């Protein structure tokens, strides 16, 4: 059993930066905190116009700094956060260690980034704010959500045969 778990972690490290898996078992209502944070995050997306199709189009046409400023701020916050987690050996709120797997560059990241960017430009939606867009009444985005789910399934199906 231990060998299968180690092999599973090695495979997951190819796709994820952080592969922590808590061994703690919680009651169902502990997940409500994620719902509340998700709703608040959606409100921030709406108020900052991150989910605006027009803002996304401005970004891809290089007509506005708005989205680049938001994305750049998020990247900087993420870099500082990962640096502090590594430097200070920060643990989860339950005291479990956080393991961040080393990543190596490969050309698949370029292809994946281009496909992601084209999809984002065409649909005006990236995976993060899809639900916020649907929540604001842009129900046509359900097609984008279903397409993202289908694309994830296709990747999972062919993953073993793809170059990594």
From TrEMBL:
Quick check: keyword NADP in the entry? no
Pfam families found in the cross-reference section: DUF6691
Please list every transmembrane segment annotated in the UniProt record, as residue ranges: 34-54, 66-85, 110-132, 138-158
- InterPro entries in the cross-refs: DUF6691 (IPR046513)
Query: Keywords for this entry?
Result: Membrane, Transmembrane, Transmembrane helix
Does the keyword section mention Repressor? no
**Lineage of the species this protein comes from:** Bacteria, Pseudomonadati, Bacteroidota, Flavobacteriia, Flavobacteriales
Q: Which domain of life is it from?
A: Bacteria
Q: What is this protein called?
A: YeeE/YedE family protein
